[in-house]
Amino acid sequence: MKSLFKLISSVLLIPLLVAGCNSPIRVKSTTYTPLDQPTAIAEPELLDIGVLVFNPGIDELDEDEAESVLPFLRNAEAHYLANQLTQTIQDSSAWGAVRMLPSKDVITDVYVTGVVKHSDGEVLELEISVDDTSGVHWYTKSYKAVASKYAYERRKKLDRDPFQGLFNEIANDLAAHQSNLAPGQAENLRTVSTLRFAREFAPEAYAQHLQSDRKNRLTVVRLPAANDPTLARIDRIRERDYLYVDTVQEYYDIFSRTMTEPYQDWRARNYDEVLAVRDLKRQSLQRTAGGIAAVLVGVAASGSNSGVTRASGAVAIGSGALLVKSGLTKKAEAQIHIDALAELGQSLENAVEPRVIELEDQTVTLTGNVLAQYQQWQEILKKIYHAERGES
């Protein structure tokens, strides 16, 4: 009988042990990484850089994450976060033109792509990959930051994103890598970009200027003449292309500005929801585990020859049942919070409507299909190029 009472006592400690192992950790402060400001870079060494819309990572979500991640919201985040990084890179003053690009069809010197691995207001995790115009992969690196509750309060005073330190870290790594390029490599990459663009419009004239190896990496094998009239004409076409891409950049900027306030509000509220869900799941786990164990011990005690032990067993069964019921109730409450996240995300719907912009003699509506619009623009540029050459 003594051993049975010891077992019952041990079982009743289970909820306390589970509680101790799963106590929530609340971050009170975060480490802020400042943005490096490199020394002046010579004009020939300045590379243009483009940040592509991030992959929202929806297809990589596990079952638990899929319950709380709204596809619409994550897609909006993929645009917003990419634009935040674009602005941060611009602020670093380490590059030439810094643009957010609809796709790699836009020819530039360096490309930055990213995947949103996790984003819930408390934790932001991004996987960043960098490649250059010649097809050389620079690096892939994961970045993760945990925001404190106070970060959202300070954001209003400091006017900066709660995860600005993470964007600064990415920009610092980009600048550091660029500073370590071999002498002349930056200028060579700019030449590759120029010849790639020229090849798109006049393949018969510039196809032999670049050579591709088995890994599709490009090298310059021939330079055009300094006074090449065809290249001068293509350079003017490229300036028009820049104007269009800058117009697209305005769209992304408007998108981000419109999204900022409701998104930051969602983040702050979701931060509380994440902690609430975590607390409820912890309570559900400890109560359910302890309750089931208590019921099992009670059932064992009910078969004892001792009346006192049988009475203790009955109490254990009743207490355990209550704990199990309480645990299931907590689980239901957690689902309510998850449902609340869905409602919060819907509040962004009106803030991210597509924008209509005027582009020369036509009106373009920039929705999710910016890539298709850019492809149409490329066709327009080719028609302009051939018209200037007197070709039909």
In short:
Helices cover 58% and strands 14% of the residues. The protein is an alpha/beta fold. Helix 4 (71-91) crosses helix 6 (164-179).
Number of helices, counting only DSSP H or I runs of 4 residues or more: 11
CA-to-CA gap between the ends?
101 Å
Percent of sequence in beta strands: 5-15%
Write down the Rg.
Answer: 29 Å
- Subunit organisation of the chains: single chain
Mean of the pLDDT scores? 76
The helix/strand class is alpha/beta
Taking pLDDT < 50 over at least 5 consecutive residues as the criterion, the unreliable ranges are 14-25, 284-291, 347-353
Strand order in the sheet with the most strands:
2-1-3-4-5
SS elements, strand count: 9
What is the element string, with H for helices and E for strands? HHEHHEEEEHHHHEEHHEEH
What's the shape? globular
- Main sheet specs: 5 strands, mixed
**Helix share of residues?**
55-70%
Topology:
Blueprint: H1 2-12, H2 14-21, E1 49-52, H3 63-68, H4 71-91, E2 98-101, E3 110-119, E4 123-132, E5 137-146, H5 149-158, H6 164-179, H7 185-201, H8 203-206, E6 210-212, E7 218-220, H9 229-302, H10 307-346, E8 355-359, E9 362-366, H11 370-388
Parallel strand pairs: 1-2, 1-3
Antiparallel strand pairs: 3-4, 4-5, 6-7, 8-9
Helix pairs in contact: 1-9, 2-9, 4-6, 4-9, 7-9, 9-10, 9-11
